[in-house]
């Protein structure tokens, strides 16, 4: 059984940094396309950053230059380094793992990020 467990969220002041982690239990992350999504209150869930199985990376325009997605195959963990955080980055962040060319699609439980002074 595949389980994704996020950690690293919390309260941070504007301009601060956080690093989110997503540990995968029960599978090897290297086989999956991975992504970080976020959902703010009253808004739709949006893709923040993605990293493909091949290593290709994409970012939402709103986070380019501030967020960095990475994966550590040895630790079976996906990361999202967030810097220069803004109040509008406040949301529940969730990681996603999708096995290419299959119906396998897994989500973590989410971690709250709050940017406020």
- Beta-strand content bin: over 45%
Class based on secondary structure composition and strand pairing: mainly beta
Please tally the helical runs, counting DSSP H or I stretches of 4 or more residues. 0
Largest sheet: 7 strands, mixed
Written as H for each helix and E for each strand, in order along the chain, the element string is EEEEEEEEEEE
Shape descriptor reads globular
Uncertain spans = none
Helix content: under 10%
Structural Rg:
14 Å
Compute the number of strand runs: 11
Mean of residue pLDDT values: 95
- Terminal CA distance reads 40 Å
How does this structure look, described?
- 0% of the residues lie in helices and 51% in strands.
- The protein contains no helices and eleven strands.
- The strands form two sheets. Strands 2, 4, 5, 6, 9, 10 and 11 form a seven-stranded mixed beta sheet that branches. Strands 1-3-8-7 form a four-stranded antiparallel beta sheet, with no helix packed on it.
- The mean pLDDT is 95.
Task: Lay out the secondary structure.
Blueprint: E1 3-7, E2 10-12, E3 18-25, E4 33-39, E5 46-51, E6 57-59, E7 67-72, E8 77-82, E9 91-98, E10 105-107, E11 111-115
Parallel strand pairs: 2-11
Antiparallel strand pairs: 1-3, 3-8, 4-5, 4-9, 5-6, 7-8, 9-10, 9-11
